[in-house]
Design brief:
This protein has one domain. The chain contains five helices and no strands. It is elongated, with a radius of gyration of 23 Å.
């Protein structure tokens, strides 16, 4: 497999992950809000014997809720960092390359991009090679292309 093909696959996988992260972020914020609300009603430590229903889902300590909140915040931060890297990468592209990149990798595919932008396959390939060089340079995967 050629170096260029490996870079294309790597870039495609990265864009796919970013799309998934952008889809997951609003749900993670909702989950975080839910966990914070649930943590308000935690059972405080008591030295008195407890009588009643055992194993109720509401009988979690504050430590349980804090761990869940911390894990959710960690997931949010990881995804935000990756989305920020993506936005920084796309901001380094010129307008034409950015439009081709977003439509080719992020929205459509090659045929739809060609039809949508009214551009030839050779022109798209030239721009994509420039984008791959920038991708390689930005993420220090390979020193020379």
């Amino acid at each position: 497999m050629t170096l260029e093909k490996k870079l294309k696959i790597s870039l495609k996988q990265w864009v796919t992950a970013i799309r998934r992260y952008e889809y997951e972020l609003p749900r993670l914020y909702e989950k975080l809000e839910y966990l914070k609300v649930r943590s308000i009603g935690y059972i405080s430590p008591s030295f008195e014997p407890k009588f009643g229903a055992r194993g109720s889902s509401n009988n979690y300590s504050i430590g349980f809720w804090l761990e869940r909140i911390e894990a959710c915040e960690s997931q949010i931060n990881k995804r935000k960092i990756e989305v920020d890297k993506f936005n920084e990468f796309t901001s380094k592209l010129d307008e034409v390359s950015k439009e081709i990149f977003l439509k080719y990798y992020y929205i459509y595919g090659i045929k739809e991009t060609m039809n949508n932008l009214n551009i030839s396959y050779q022109d798209i390939n030239k721009k994509l090679k420039g984008i791959l060089k920038l991708y390689c340079k930005c993420f220090d995967e390979i020193k020379r292309f």
